[in-house]
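User: Show me a protein chain along with its predicted structure.
Assistant: Here is one chain, sequence first, then C-alpha cells.
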Amino acid sequence: MDERGESLNMTVHLLASSGDLSLLQRTIDQLVHWICPGIQLFLVSARVRSFKYYEKYHKKRSGFPGMSVLLFLHEDLGEERIVQMVHFFQHPPWQYHHTENSSGRFCSYMLASQDFYSLDAHMPVWGIRQVHYGTEILRVTLYCHFDNYEDAVRLYEMILQKEATVQKSNFCFFVLYSTESVSVQFSLKQLPPGVPVELKESSVLQFRVQEIGQLVPLLPNQCIPISNTRWQTQDYDGNKILLQIFWALIVQEMVVKFYEVQMQEIVSCDKNTSIPRGQSGLFSGIRQDFFKATDLNTNSEYLFRVRAVNKAGPGAWSEPYKIRCVQEQKMPVMERVL
C-alpha cells in the first residue's frame, strides 16, 4: 500500500518550555531524518502554563505510558547504524524511562533492544526495534484502556476517514505514509484489563479533516474551536486531539486551479426567522487552502460556502458553514497557533 503525499494527515505536537523549543525540535528532527528524511511528523511548540499548574489543579494519574514512538530498523542496513541510534538515546536531552521484558511488563534489568527513553516525563516514550524483513517503520502508538479500545478504533477510523490497514483483536495500525523503504504508521494498542493509562499531557495529536460540521456531533467529547481552522477535543482516554480543517487540492483527478468562497451575513428578525442580509460577497481566484475574512461585525453570524474551479469549470458548492464572529481570545492550550 502506498500512502505517499507532500504532507501527513497526522502531526504530533509536543509542548515544551519556551527555552527548550529549539533544542528539542533539532533533536527529534535529527533522529527522524535517519529513518524518514523529509518527513515532518513532530512539531515542538510552547506550552501556555508550566506543569506546576497542572500538577496542582489536575489529579495525577500513574499507569502505562499512554504514547510511544517506535523505530523499527532493518538489520540489513548495518548494525553500526542501529548502534549509533541507540547511542544517540543515551545522551541528553534524552532520559532513560524504563525497560520492558518480552511479556511487556516492567523489569529492573537493562536490555538494550527494549529500553525506552523520553525527552520529558509528559512526552511520548521512544524505543528501537530490529526488523529482519520488509520496510523500516516509524510507528506512533496510543495505548488504550481495555474498555475503550474498540471505541477508540472506530473514533480514529472516523477521523482519518479510512479503516485500519491492519486490525487484530487488541492492536491495529493506519499507514500515514509509505515508500518502498519506509512506512510511517499510527497505531492503537489495547492494554490488559485493570492497567491504567498514564496520559502524556505534553503530547497533542493533530489530524487534517475536510469536514468539521458533520464530525463534531459524532465525537465522544466536547469539541470547541480554538482558531479559525482548528478545533480541540479528546478521545475516550482523555488524549488531546486537534482537528485542522483543510481543503483538498485534487478533485476527480484534476488539479484545482483556484477556489471561490461565498459569504453572507445573517441578520435575525425574530427568534423564529432569520434572513440573509448585510455583508456579502463572492471571492474568487483563491490559490491557498485557506481563506481569511476581515472587517466582520462582532457578535454577527455568517454563512460561508466554497467550491473548487479547474479546467472543466466550477464544481458544486459545499454545504454552508455557519460561523459566529466573536472577539479574539487567547488560546487555552497553546501559546501560538500550531
